[in-house]
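During the second half of the funding period, the structural biology subgroup turned its attention to how the target accommodates small molecules. The most pressing case was adenosine-5'-triphosphate, which had performed well in the primary screen but for which no bound structure existed. We therefore specified the complex as follows and requested a full 3D prediction, including the ligand pose.
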Amino acid sequence: MIRFEQVSKVYPGGQKALSGVSFHLKKGEMAFLTGHSGAGKSTLLKLISVIERASAGRVSINGHDVAQVSPAQVPYLRRDIGIIFQNHQLLMDRSVHDNVALPLLIEGFSQKEINKRVSGALDMVGLHGKEKHNPIMLSGGEQQRVGIARAIVNKPPLILADEPTGNLDPKLSMDIMGLFELLNDAGSSVLVATHDLGLIARMKYRTLTLKQGQMLFAEEHQL
Ligand SMILES: Nc1ncnc2c1ncn2[C@@H]1O[C@H](COP(=O)(O)OP(=O)(O)OP(=O)(O)O)[C@@H](O)[C@H]1O
């Protein structure tokens, strides 16, 4: 599904974020991505979602080299990726319903289908009944869950989550991880970047570890 071959990223200004990173996330696999603050986790997710481009090496999704994807094609590639950002990136002047509906509107679903799916996604993240609220009226953890509902509402084949449980208490964190497991069981590939070693320890998934931009462990089966 996702393959990195000797990928490096240097930001304009010379900040080296990734060096010679190689790994393969298989179709239907769920894995964690960990490492200290600044190790390059967000950068790695941004290269997959083509928010940033690699400085060297090859990033491919389903066998397609993303370097060949033109800026005009990027939105089509992103339709298949549910991205959960650290800072939610919600539209604060729109309702919770409108925020979650966004990926479905872009795909041209009918209003009836949109309402059904939005309601289902909000149920899944425990925000039933908050449709009409404005995100500004919600707590940080609730806003995070709106971002999660938006990322999963169109059941994308790939889910990328950057610290998805950062603002959530342990119970809610496990519920959200359970939700990712459900989506994984239904066929989505899932990559979760997190500092939360406790969370990783509780769940038996492969862990990709970054240290100062280099991949330390990317074994196929690490239990
Ligand atoms: N847009 C940018 N411009 C310049 N440098 C950047 C940019 N984004 C990230 N960096 C740098 O790249 C390195 C890796 O950052 P990245 O955000 O990928 O780390 P991270 O592992 O996700 O950290 P955190 O856990 O704190 O979110 C850091 O040294 C950071 O300062």
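Two results from this model are relevant to the next phase. DSSP finds seven helices and ten strands in the chain. The CA atoms of residues 35 and 210 lie 5 Å apart.
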